[in-house]
Amino acid sequence: VEGGPKIHSAFLARNLADVIYRYRAQQNLGAGLQSALNALFTAAGTCGPNIEFIESSRFGPDLLERFEIKV
């Protein structure tokens, strides 16, 4: 699902997602922007207890990561 924090939070709260693709760029989208994924990852950006890292791919300086949500 492509959307913002409210849409992502709604899907995660209802266990309607089983895979997360996290695209990390060197430039932030906006000051103070909160992600629906904040609760799933630590401040260091590593996985929380219900998330399993699967793979990552580089696109120049940017990084695409794939995670599975454990139910």
Itemize the secondary structure elements and their pairings.
Elements: H1 5-13, E1 19-24, E2 51-59, E3 62-69
Antiparallel strand pairs: 1-3, 2-3
Explain how this protein is built.
The protein is mainly β. It is built from one helix and three strands. It has a three-stranded antiparallel sheet with strand order 1-3-2, with no helix packed on it. The radius of gyration is 12 Å and the shape is globular. The two termini are 18 Å apart. The mean pLDDT is 81.
Report Rg.
12 Å
Instruction: Count helical runs.
Output: 1
Helical/strand content category: mainly beta
Number of strands: 3
User: Mean of the pLDDT scores?
Assistant: 81
Give the overall form. Answer: globular
Distance between the termini: 18 Å
Low-confidence stretches: none
In terms of quaternary structure, the protein is single chain
- In percent terms, what proportion of residues is strand? 25-35%
